[in-house]
Write a structure and sequence with these properties.
The structure is a single chain. This protein is α+β, with helices and mostly antiparallel strands and 147 residues long. 52% of the residues lie in helices and 14% in strands. The chain is built from six helices and six strands, in the order ααβαβαβαβββα. Helix 2 packs across helix 6 and helix 3 runs parallel beside helix 4. It starts with a helix and ends with a helix.
Length: 147
């Protein structure tokens, strides 16, 4: 009886881990960005908003910058792009400010796990990746191939 109990305890967790990691093999850049932002948020490694992002970019604390394409202020976009170019920081653009706000944690999560009261965010800087993840590797490979 003890042998059967040991086999069940050992086999079930390893099967679950393999099943969850298998679909992540084909991760898109957007999914990778979402994962990196989530992990960075957990490790307090995000700067959100113009003021925080400009400070982090100017102090060269940033590893990655995410900017919204549909920003109404042209000077805002020019400033962030210039700081990224000057300090050789990777820049990626997304289309929706509300979606970036959700990824950066600027929302409330209800009981069902759906985001509520989402605040739009036009710029996010990753100062600390946190732990190594598949999403981080996908983004780094994306930046290497794009250059």
């Amino acid at each position: 009886m003890s042998d059967a109990g040991d086999e069940i305890q050992v086999d079930e967790p390893t099967q679950e881990v393999v099943a969850t990691e298998a679909p992540k093999g084909k991760m898109s850049v957007e999914e990778a960005l979402q994962q990196v932002l989530k992990i960075s948020l957990q490790h307090d490694g995000l700067a959100r908003g113009l003021r925080e992002c400009a400070k982090a970019l100017d102090k060269r604390q940033a590893h990655l910058c995410v900017l919204v394409e549909t920003n109404t202020e042209a000077e805002y976009i020019k400033l962030i792009e210039a700081l990224c170019a000057e300090h050789k920081i990777s820049l990626i653009k997304v289309s929706d400010a509300k979606q970036l706000g959700t990824w950066a944690g600027l929302c409330k999560i209800d009981k069902d796990g759906n985001p509520r009261k989402v605040v739009g965010c036009s710029c996010v800087v990753v100062k600390d990746y946190g732990t190594d993840s598949e999403g981080m590797n996908v983004l780094l490979n994306y930046f290497r191939t794009r250059s």
